[in-house]
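Hi, here's the filled form for the chain we discussed.

Project: internal
Contact: R.S.
Residues: 184
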Amino acid sequence: MIKPLLSKKQIMRAVLSGLGLVFLLYFFSDSAIMPRYSSLRRKISALSRVNADLRDIERKRAAAPEMRRKIAELNDRRKILDKQLAADKNVPPLSRTISSLASQYKVSVSSVKIPPVEQIGNFIKADCSFSASGSYDGVKKFWSALAAEGCMTHSVKIRPVSALTPENAVKADFELVYYRYKEP
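And the returned structure, exactly as it came back:
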């Protein structure tokens, strides 16, 4: 018969030692190591969020001089426009007239440009250019109504928008001269 390498007692000790080792690993990993590991994972994720926030703050801080320059530029533009608006305080009737007539005749007005007004004696002269689009009849009636309001037409270019649009849609580019009496 073959003689075994290990006795029954030695095999039993090895099996019990292995089971004890497995039990100890399970016990320590479940009760001692796992809570620490999950706590460590929470701290690592919190740290990564803080790092992302810091990178975002650094990026915003780096962009701050550019933003300050843009704000200063916009403030300068606003001051210039405020001065122009103060000079053009007598022109709003013209812009109101154009917008009210456009809505009345279902005409869309865009690209309105009203440069600073000139004073000629007791009159205010304002040049104005804009584009209007709508049906042919609407643009024609809008143009007639502008003339009735005292807007002298300097030039008008009327062209069809497309052959496929409904109601014979046209686009007109207007250049007007507007005179208004100003009391001395």
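Let me know if anything looks off before we file it.
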